[in-house]
Amino acid sequence: MATTEKRQRSDVFKSGFVQDAYFSQVYEFPLLKQATGKPYKAIPFDKATRSTKYDHWIHFYIHDKQFECVWNNPKQYLNMLKRFAGVITPDFSLYRSLPLAMQIWNTYRSRAIAYWLQSNGISIIPNIRWGDERTYAFAFEGIEKGGTVAVSTNGCIKKKLDRYYFIKGLDKMVETLKPDTIINYSYAPDDIFTPYRNQGIEIIPIENYILTVRKGVQ
After folding, report:
1. What are phi and psi for residue 88, nearest 5 degrees?
2. Which domains does the chain have, with CATH numbers?
3. Nearest to 79 by CA among 66, 91, 88, 70
4. Closest by alpha carbon to 23, among 115, 92, 107, 100?
5. How are beta strands 148-152 and 124-125 bridged, if at all?
6. 162, CA 20 to 30 Å: which among 53, 96, 131, 201?
7. CA–CA distance, 83 with 52 (Å, rounded to integer)
8. What distance in Å separates the CA atoms of residue 32 and residue 118, rounded to the nearest whole number?
9. Exposed (0-12), middle (13-18) or buried (19+): which is 185, by Cβ within 10 Å?
10. Could you tell me which residues are beta bridge partners of residue 59?
11. Rounded to an integer, what is the distance from CA 4 to the centroid of its chain?
């Protein structure tokens, strides 16, 4: 037992997340089972720790520093996460200004946590995040085609250049993964999402948590 505990403490790369996983061919991300959940309510991770709204899903569309703890000490939060309807997987940042190696690493981390959550019986929806065209090589890898995926326009479409990259990447994601359902956290403009509705893809918008609080909905 002591040896096992020592090994877990020294697992700085969190290889335990992907124990027994099968991996994608190129970047060796853990392969995830297809997600089929359709959440209409979600609460940010940093608020979920004090919430009893267990019919909600948990999301991570918040600053990375507010959920880095899940990567560092996942078991501490497992029981809390299990109480909720499911988890939209962590949204580690893929800023275009980040070195590409860091963007690949952050994508891996999201996939690794997603696999670990599935292995522990938690319903997940994979969050798909991309940057510029270079990220298309890995941003969609390890995700089974069809089913449900999640994206977020939060902070991604206010500036013209950011909006351009979001729209272009969304189109590439749909082309590659062919999802049945797309969950979008925050504002879902018709000019961006209607073309996909017209293709028969179900678009489920989840309102930004701050707005729901202001409306007194939460």
Report:
1. -85, 120
2. 36-215 (3.20.20)
3. 70
4. 115
5. unpaired
6. 201
7. 9
8. 8
9. buried
10. 44
11. 30
d(CA 18, CA 119) in angstroms, rounded, equals 9
Q: How far apart are CA 185 and CA 146, in angstroms?
A: 19
CB contact burial 90-114 (16+ within 10 A = b; e otherwise)? bbbebeeeeeeeebbebbbbbbbbb
Residue type, 19: Q
Q: Which of 163, 194, 84, 178 is nearest to 128 (CA)?
A: 178
- pLDDT per residue as tens, the chain (218 positions): 444 455 556 688 899 999 999 999 999 999 999 999 999 999 999 999 899 999 999 999 999 999 999 999 999 999 999 999 999 999 999 999 999 999 999 999 999 999 999 999 999 999 999 999 999 999 999 999 999 999 999 989 999 999 999 999 999 999 999 999 999 999 999 999 999 999 999 999 999 887 777 676 55
- Return the closest-CA partner of residue 73 out of 15, 14, 1, 122: 14
Cα-based distances in Å from 49 to 34, 72, 81, 85, 108: 27, 16, 9, 14, 25
In whole angstroms, what is the distance from residue 153 CA to residue 144 CA? Answer: 22
